[in-house]
Each structure stands twice: as structure tokens, then as C-alpha cells.
Amino acid sequence: xxxxxxxxxxxxAVLLVAAIWQLVPTFKLQGLSEQQKxxxxxxxxxxLYAKAIHLGLDLKGxxxxxxEVNHKGLAKAMNKDVADLKTKEIAxxxxxxxxxxxxxxxxxxxxxxxxxxxGDDRIVIQLPGVDxxxxxxxxGTTALLEFRMVQDDKVTQEVLDRIDRALTASGDKQLLAxxxxxxxxxxxxxxxAMGEGMSVLGEEKELVEKALKNPVVAAAxxxxxxxxxxxRIDRDGSDRGQRIYLLKKSAELTGSALTEARMGVGTDDxxxxxxxxxxxxxxxxxxxxxxxxxxxxxxxxxxxxxxxxSAPVIRSKIPDGSGQIEMGSNxxxxxxxxxxxILRAGALP
Length: 349
Hints:
Layout: H1 2-30, H2 34-39, H3 42-51, H4 57-60, E1 62-68, H5 71-77, H6 87-108, E2 114-118, E3 122-128, H7 132-140, E4 145-149, H8 153-170, H9 173-176, E5 192-193, E6 198-200, H10 205-212, H11 215-220, E7 225-235, E8 238-248, E9 253-254, E10 258-265, E11 274-280, H12 282-294, E12 300-304, E13 307-310, E14 322-326, H13 333-345
Antiparallel strand pairs: 1-3, 2-3, 4-9, 4-12, 5-6, 6-8, 7-8, 10-11, 11-14, 12-13
Helix pairs in contact: 6-13
């Protein structure tokens, strides 16, 4: 009887040790912060996720999302009417979006996500234990990346003068009546010079946006140009407004030429600033080299979904197709890492 009890005790101890050993990866994973996860080698983090025990939405919480294809947007992209869209075309767009989203989530590092198609035009996503807003941004960002030239001071001033003359001649009292505007410069008086480019103070941004929607202003801007907003300027804790750029409408290159994108630390102005390093495919690298060689000392805008995320000055020819996107003074590690993931995974259709 005593011998039987001894074997039971030994077996129980062995099973207990084995169970604790199996739980070590789970405890280790739960003890990691988001910062530590971001800094771990991707291969090591994936192995840790594979060995750990994962809780579902019912126990850990997380996000349940249903995405639906925008039929009007898809028809516009295909130069068709919505009524002319075929079921196969809608299903193909959904399949492409599904693969891109799956790729983004895999790189984000979510354990045991559920990503599946529902019908021809919907995608169901369940992500246990994630930050909802961060996940929403990662999944929902279109990520249309463009490289577009910023127009020089001479061209910009000519366009501003055309807008001022058009508004003055039109006698648009709704815009001209504002006391902050100069009578002969109703539009350009809202813009201030700020280093490389222009800026708009916070309280005047609404006026500028309103003016840019004005048919008189739209007609005065040459067809090949358009204004685009950039980053907010925050210095010494004070709001210095928001940058605005006059760009060529046509892109010199797009994000489809990207082959690599990684988060990095340190820029020319700030050794602690975050950035995203990118590299272009060989064919695009030659085009990028010619572009940079022909525009030394001019600004090249890096535009993401219509917003200028950075506009570095080209100091020399870039022959290898590499570059960087600066995250700005308020950029976080998560934002830099997520942007790199989105760029690598491609743009949603």
C-alpha cells in the first residue's frame, strides 16, 4: 500500500512539473510589455506565441469587426457604374483585401486571430487581447503611398497670387469679410513661412479649408497642382500650426514599388527620433535615382493617403532606392512599427 502511494506521489510530482514547464512560455509572454515585444526578434516572438496558451475573446476580450467592400469606391476605381459591377469583381476585391489584412495581422503578432470571408463582399475579423484603436488603424488604413514633388517658392507664389487676384475680383464677401484677412491678399495672408515651406495657424486652418473648397479658388489653381496638409508643428510645448504644401497632382512613384519597410531610430535633426526606413525595387530604384539627381535642393513629399507625412530636401542623388519617413516629434514606437507593417503588406483595394 505504501509502495502504491509512493508511485502516485512521484507521478503527481512529475505531471505537476511538466504542467508548470508547459506554462513557462505563457507566463513569459504575458510578462512582456508592448515595447519589449516590438524590440524582440520576430522569429523569437513567433516561437513564443506558438508555445503559449491563448485566451479567446470570451475570456480575454479583444475586437470583433466586420468589414464590407465599398461598392461605389470599387466601381469608381474600375471606371464603372455600381450597377455594372459583377459579383466576381466584388469577390476578387474582397479576396485581395483579405490577404492584405491577414498579412498585416500576422506581422502585428496577434495570437490565433480569426479572419474569414463572409459572402462575396464581407470580411469577419476577431482579434483576442488587442488594443482596439491601434488594431482598427492597422486594419483600416488604406496606405496609398506616393512620392510627389513640392513646388518651389517661385511657382508657389505665382499660384498664391492667382488665388488672391481671383478672390479679390470675385468680391466673395463671405471670405473677404473676415477681419484677419488682408484686403489685397485674402488667401495668402492666412499662410506663414515656416522653414522649408508654409504653415497655417490652428485658428485659421478652418478658413483655409473653406477657401480651398471655394469654386473661385479651385478654378485659380492650375490643374497640375493641389494643396496638401502636412504634420502639426509643435515646438517648446506650443502649437505653431500645421504645414501645408503645394504639390504636383501626379505621383513620381507609388508605394507599389516598395520591397522593404522597417522601423528605425535617429534622424539628421534628432538622434532619438523614430523613422521608417524603406527600400524600392530595382526598377523603381533607377527611376528614384534619376528623380533625385534632377531635383537636388528641392523637397520631395512622401504622401500617405493624401497627407504629407514628411517632405525632406533632396541633398544628393540616391542611387540605391533607399529612403526614410520621419515620424515627427510626437511619433510613437507603435505608430512607426504599424506604418512599416502597413507599407510592407501593401495597400487595400
